[in-house]
Each structure stands twice: as structure tokens, then as C-alpha cells.
Amino acid sequence: MILRIAVSSICVAFLALNANAGAKGNRAAEPQDARDIKAVLDRQVEAWNRRDLEGFMNGYWRSERLTFFSGATKTTGWQATIDRYRKRYQSEGREMGHLDFYDQQLDLLGPRAAVVRGRWRLKTGATEAGGLFTLIFRKFDDGWKIVHDHTGAE
Q1: How many other C-beta atoms can be found within 10 angstroms of the C-beta atom of residue 132?
Q2: Which residues pair with 106 in a beta bridge?
Q3: Terminal CA-to-CA distance of the chain, rounded, Å?
Q4: Local structure of 91: helix, strand or coil
Q5: CA-CA distance, 101 to 42, in Å (whole number)?
Q6: What does the radius of gyration of the chain's CA atoms come to, in whole angstroms?
Q7: Which residues contact 120 (CB under 8 A, 6 or more apart)?
Q8: What is the reported pLDDT for 85?
Q9: What number is the average pLDDT over the span 9-14?
Q10: Using one digit for the tens of pLDDT, what is the confidence trace for 121-152?
């Protein structure tokens, strides 16, 4: 009887250790992807704040299938998206200002897809604007890219 209890205890401990090791293995892959996605967003903010719109756009999928929703406007394609940004933030009398992302929540949907929800704030001169965003990321051979951006203002 004591031998059975001892063998059962060892088996349970072994199974628990294996389950825990498997879970840690899965968690090890997820945090790296999360860090990589966060790095994309950090690089975007840094590029924006040094007035580098092309650098900011490196976070987006360079495809005609990229979508950007803002208010009631749908923009399709990388080129159309950068043109929209140029018109709004780099045309005559406009300034890019200082951008911040905060309150971010990142959910990995699988090994090659993620969604990030959060808030943005843009200070330009004496004015400040902000709102919510939802970004859908896909992992490509060259890293994580935004394939859909839905940004709203408050």
C-alpha cells in the first residue's frame, strides 16, 4: 500500500512537472512575440516624434490590402495611408507634434496574428487630441506588421 502511494505520488509529480514545462515552453514563445510587437509600436512612436513619417510607416504592411479606418473614412493600401498622413500632418501649416501610445492590451491570437488595443495622445502646439485604437498584426518573414488600423478620436 505504501509503495502504491509512493509510486502514485511520483507519477503525479512527474505529470505536473511535465505539464508545467510545456506551459513554460508555450509562454516562452508568446512573450518574445509580444516584445517584438511592442518594439514595432515603440519604433513608430520614436519615428513620429522625430518627424520621420516613412519610419513610422515601417510598422505597417506595405501592401494594397492594408486597411486604415478612422471615423467614417476607410483608406486602403500602404501608399494611400501614407498620403493621408502626409496631408493631415505634414502639409502646409500642419505639424506632426508629439505622439504617445498608452493603456495597451496585446492579445496573441496565434503564432502569426495578434491584436493590440490602446489609447493614443497627440500634442501639437497648444492642442492635444487623443482616442482609442485597435491594431491587427500579422507576422511576416520580415517581422510583425500592422495589417489593419482602426483609430478613433475622442
Answers
A1: 14
A2: 116
A3: 69
A4: coil
A5: 9
A6: 22
A7: 99, 100, 101, 102, 130, 131, 132, 133, 151
A8: 96
A9: 37
A10: 999 988 999 999 999 999 999 999 999 999 99
Tens of pLDDT, residues 100-123? 999 999 999 999 999 999 999 999
Query: Phi and psi at residue 7, in whole multiples of 5°?
Result: -65, -40
Amino acid at 31: P
Domain span at residue 87 reads: 2-153
Say how many domains are in the chain: 1
Q: For residue 21, what are the contacts with CB-CB under 8 A and spacing of at least 6?
A: none
Three-state DSSP class for residue 95: coil
Could you tell me which of 82, 42, 88 has the C-alpha nearest to residue 61?
A: 82
Q: How far is CA 6 from CA 2, 18, 20, 119, in A?
A: 6, 18, 21, 54
CATH number at residue 99: 3.10.450.50
Q: Per-residue DSSP letters for 23-89? A: HHHHHHHHHHHHHHHHHHHHHHHHHHHTT-HHHHHTTB--STT-EEEETTEEEESHHHHHHHHHHHH
Provide the pLDDT confidence category of residue 12 given band limits of 50, 70 and 90. very low
Rounded CA-CA distance 2/6 in Å is 6
